[in-house]
Structures are given as C-alpha cells and as structure tokens.
Design a protein that fits this description.
Blueprint: H1 2-63, H2 67-82, H3 84-88, H4 91-104, H5 116-138, H6 142-146, H7 169-179
Helix pairs in contact: 1-2, 1-5, 2-4, 4-5, 4-7
Length: 193
C-alpha cells in the first residue's frame, strides 16, 4: 500500500493534467454542439420565413387590386425565385415556382386571377417540404401547434386550371421535361379548346 502513496505523490500532477484535458475536450464538444444547434435553428427560421414570404408573394400576385403594388409583388417573386429561395428549395418547389413564373410572364395585371392555381401549387409544394422536414427532423405535431382537431391538408383540390394558349409550346415542353418527375403538373398544359 505504501507504493500507492508514493505513486500518487510522484505522479499526482498527471491526474490534474488528465482532468484538465478531459474538461477542455468536454467544453469544446459542448460548445460545438451548441453552436451547431444555434446554426440549425437560425437556418430553419430563415427557411420557414422565406417559405412564408414566398407563399405571401404568390398569393398577392393573385389577389392584389392595385397595379403598381402588383408590379412590386412581381419583382419580389423574381427576387425570391432567383435569390433566397434557391438556398432552400427542393425540385418540387423549384418547378412550382418555374410554372408560376412562366405564367406570370404571359399575363397582364387584368388577368392576374389566372395565377391562382399556380400560386396554390407553389404553396402546396412549400407545405409538402415543411411537412417532410417536420416528419423527419422537427417532429412537431402541426395539428396541435395550429390548435385544430382536424387534418390541415386541403381536401377539395379545386384550384387546378389549364395553361392558356399564350404560354409558348417551347416553354411548356421545357418545364414539363424538367418538372414532371418532381411534382404534379397542372392537369393539362395544352391550350384550352
């Protein structure tokens, strides 16, 4: 037993060093985990805010009654489509925005209501993306969070409409080629009879 006392007396400093190293490793690991959590939180917050801004912008392009404000919403749409949304979107959102943009380029303010089904498609793709994030990562009960006792999914499916003849066939075929496998395209993109 005496040898233990001598060992501790001679090498006691080693325990202090080991404890200091372990504490430093724990502190660095904790810091990095907290930094990662904070980054993910900020990223998710920005992503959801961008999705809400996108849904608001496309719906404003359908509902706005002031032509000057409508032009402003159009500028916001293109800013989102080529800017912030690029960071967060998946192929379904990209395609829905592309369909919307193709239609937006072909209609004047007076026919803005024709954008309705395309705005709905964008919102639905955003919703699907958020639902997937929630199911796989966030694990938040959206029904409880929204304070309702029913499924929040739209049930009527009455928002689809055909692209008009004013959208060029080349644009239609390019959109179709890129997007058909990622999302449900408008029921019929051929000109209405």
């Amino acid at each position: 037993m005496e040898w233990i006392g001598r060992f501790v007396k001679e090498y006691g400093w080693l325990g202090t060093v080991i404890a200091a190293i372990a504490t430093a490793i724990w502190a660095v690991t904790t810091y990095l985990q907290n930094a990662r959590r904070e980054y993910v939180k900020e990223f998710n917050t920005k992503q959801v805010a961008t999705f809400f801004m996108t849904a608001e912008t496309v719906s404003s392009l359908v509902a706005e009654n002031d032509a000057a404000k409508w032009d402003g919403h159009g500028a916001s749409f293109w800013k989102l489509h080529y800017g912030d949304l690029v960071i967060f979107e998946n192929p379904g959102i990209e395609c829905a925005m592309t369909y919307f943009g193709a239609k937006l380029n072909t209609i004047p303010f007076e026919r803005r209501r024709e954008l309705g089904p395309y705005a709905f498609a964008v919102s639905q793709e955003l919703r699907k993306f958020i639902q997937t994030l929630n199911e796989n990562e966030w694990k938040i009960n959206l029904t409880t969070l929204a304070g309702v006792k029913i499924d929040l999914a739209p049930t009527l499916g009455l928002k689809g409409e055909r692209l008009g003849a004013d959208v060029g066939r080349t644009v239609k075929s390019q959109i179709e080629a890129k997007c058909k496998s990622f999302m449900t395209a408008p029921q019929d993109i051929e000109p209405s009879p």
